[in-house]
């Protein structure tokens, strides 16, 4: 097997081993395919079925769960990229499934257009990001998948199916967040809007104040989020709102200082020290959370929503009902303070409005997200297990692409429309061509 470089820069195919970004999942696919067209992709799917192999399309390998792992045929996205068409009347863009979000955002901005909302980074492919329900934070605007207006996918029999609200609507409803279980997505049509500006206000704030004012902070801002630094009473809040301008990007030096030096350089060094000597972590957390200063800048949406994440970590994130987030955070803080755990990574808190996608973590309910992280290479199970106990007690739904231990029995209770999804899967993939161990656990055999 040849050795190839993937979008995330890691070698793959070396000794036949595939690895994710977080370094916590690996697999040995029987073979890889890098189709350059929908026809080639359909042929790869049919060829796998004929050879008795299962199929898994991957994106940029940024999931922390084994959702993209396979011992069958691994379909790579690199030659299925680019903009297919732009419809200015319908205000939609159709892109090849393997297009990185970075490329989509930059191409749209050049055309004077933008997506409505984004997550924290833009390294993922459009199909990979939407398949697990990747989201940012929003009072009125939901996940990236909620911005989908149409999908094209190759199903288990090798045929090409297109869907939208009008065409195959039951497939459209579910396949926007399809977990790679319904077919291989080959193109996605997103809603776009005229390019706008966002003003970001980043401001350190005491943990107790953020919790006391959470509803106001959420209600008064289009995109509110905050990071709490465990072992401290400190947070950094971020409020993004549309503005009339003018464009005022974070100053070059200030931007570099905050985004590169503090958020990546110093943070990486601090994590190294913390991993070697965990007892230093609370002190490092106090110093680093105080090093942040307030700043305001105005820029193109994707530049405000996303920032580089060079310090590698492993993550768990749960969606809880928004009304439960303050209590869940108090319990999380109490748990950390009672325990011998030393946590060097901030806890991230975001929100999303209820949406209508069956397996969206915000399906049918107003949602808040709580994400816990551990520096790569540091044992994370004790922390994640204790956090997961709190989140599940609040009817939490885990991000499909981030570490969790839930199974199909749990999800059948957590998602009112779970049966709708599995019935569609039975229809589209009766022989389970797209099965892997992860899907067996979360959806059933
Ligand atoms: C540094 C970092 C930051 C992150 N930030 C956020 C964030 O802000 N918000 C958030 O919600 N998540 C975030 N995530 C999680 C990440 O967005 C998701 O795990 C996402 O699914 C990864 O996309 P990917 O392109 O790497 O896909 P992969 O992880 O490679 O694949 C994910 C799933 O998509 C399926 N898939 C990929 N391509 C296709 C296709 N063509 N057809 C059908 N199925 C397909 C795969 O089979 C798999 O099931 C982050 C992860 C990292 C590492």
Task: Characterise this structure.
A hairpin with a 5-residue loop joins strand 1 (4-5) and strand 2 (11-12). The strands form 6 sheets. This protein has an 8-stranded antiparallel sheet with strand order 18-15-17-16-20-21-19-22, with helices on both faces. It has a 5-stranded antiparallel sheet with strand order 8-9-13-11-12. Strands 5-7-6 form a 3-stranded parallel sheet, with helices on one face. The chain is 32% helix and 24% strand. The chain is an alpha+beta fold and 445 residues long. It has helices spanning 38-50, 101-110, 126-131, 169-175, 207-212, 214-219, 252-276, 281-291, 301-305, 325-338, 381-393, 408-414, 418-428, 437-443, and strands spanning 4-5, 11-12, 18-19, 26-27, 31-33, 55-57, 73-75, 83-87, 92-96, 113-114, 148-154, 160-164, 184-191, 193-194, 197-206, 223-228, 234-243, 295-299, 313-321, 347-352, 367-375, 397-398. Among the domains are: 83-194, Uridine Diphospho-n-acetylenolpyruvylglucosamine Reductase, domain 3 (2-Layer Sandwich), CATH 3.30.465.10; 197-299 and 311-398, FAD-linked oxidases, C-terminal domain (Vanillyl-alcohol Oxidase, Chain A, domain 3, 3-Layer(aba) Sandwich), CATH 3.40.462. Flavin-adenine dinucleotide is lined by residues 21, 56-63, 67-68, 97, 119-121, 124-125, 127-129, 131-132, 134-136, 179-180, 184-185, 309, 399, 401.
